[in-house]
Amino acid sequence: MENVVRVLSTLALMGAVRTLAGPCEAEVGTHIDADFAPTVALLDRLRGGEEADIIIVTRQALDELSAAGIVVADSRVDLARSLVGIAVKAGAVHPDIVTEAALRATLLGARSVAYSRIGASGIFFAQLIERLGIASEVNARARIIPSGLTAELLANGEAELAVQQLSELKLVPGTAIVGAIPRQLQSPMVFSAGRLTASSRVVRSDGVLRYLTSPAAAPVLREAGLEA
């Protein structure tokens, strides 16, 4: 269909893109056909020859795609900033994660911590617990999933804490977000979008990109747990 734009998006933007799809179609006249996966998985799919019109990934990954000629350089736009946070099952006591010392104690005291292996948040968290010197203790009781939503492991009791982008934690019903990992321990991750060079839907794709960065999109991004 000519009025469809194929979007490959990181999981961190899944809630926002799904919410914005309808208003975008009404405003731009283009239907968004979106598929969601971690940035690393999306890059592998592109290298494998998968076709799309727009890709939404980390800014670093998008810059690499642009340098390789896979994404049109002047189509790149920053959509949102995101922080990594921690969630518990709804109704559970919220642990203290306000300071580095409190976070360290909480992670060491947790029965099990869920994080993803290839997601941007999971890669960050693996590096964080190494920096804190508690990687072996945390990983001994961790539930490390290949990809997907870590908070889903809270509902069935497989994990006591779930670590992921705040926007991803918000996607899972029955989950309570404790808060973001202390700001001084992380740098807000920027997620960006761009049009793929191979796309034949240039005008429609650029219209979608403009809508995703418009003032109308900002409150939806904030509600999804992102900073516009």
Overall pLDDT level: 95
Q: H/E series, N to C?
A: EHEHEHEEHEHHEHEHEEHH
Number of helices: 10
Share in helix: 25-40%
Tally of separate domains = 2
Residue fraction in strands: 15-25%
Q: Which CATH C-level class of the largest domain is it?
A: Alpha Beta
Instruction: Output the CATH homologous superfamily of the largest domain.
Output: Periplasmic binding protein-like II
Please give the number of β-strands.
10
Structural class: alpha/beta
What's a concise summary of this model?
The protein is α/β, with parallel strands linked by helices. The chain contains 10 helices and 10 strands. It has 2 domains: 4-81 and 188-223, Periplasmic binding protein-like II (D-Maltodextrin-Binding Protein, domain 2), CATH 3.40.190; 84-185, D-Maltodextrin-Binding Protein, domain 2 (3-Layer(aba) Sandwich), CATH 3.40.190.10.
Architecture overview:
The structure is a single chain. The protein is α/β, with parallel strands linked by helices and 228 residues long. It has helices spanning 14-28, 39-47, 59-67, 100-109, 120-131, 135-139, 152-155, 166-169, 202-212, 218-223; strands spanning 4-9, 31-36, 54-58, 77-82, 84-89, 113-116, 143-145, 161-165, 175-180, 189-195. The strands form two sheets. It has a five-stranded mixed sheet. Helix 1 links the parallel strand 1 (4-9) and strand 2 (31-36). It folds into two domains: 4-81 and 188-223, D-Maltodextrin-Binding Protein, domain 2 (3-Layer(aba) Sandwich), CATH 3.40.190.10; 84-185, Periplasmic binding protein-like II (D-Maltodextrin-Binding Protein, domain 2, 3-Layer(aba) Sandwich), CATH 3.40.190. It contains ten helices and ten strands.
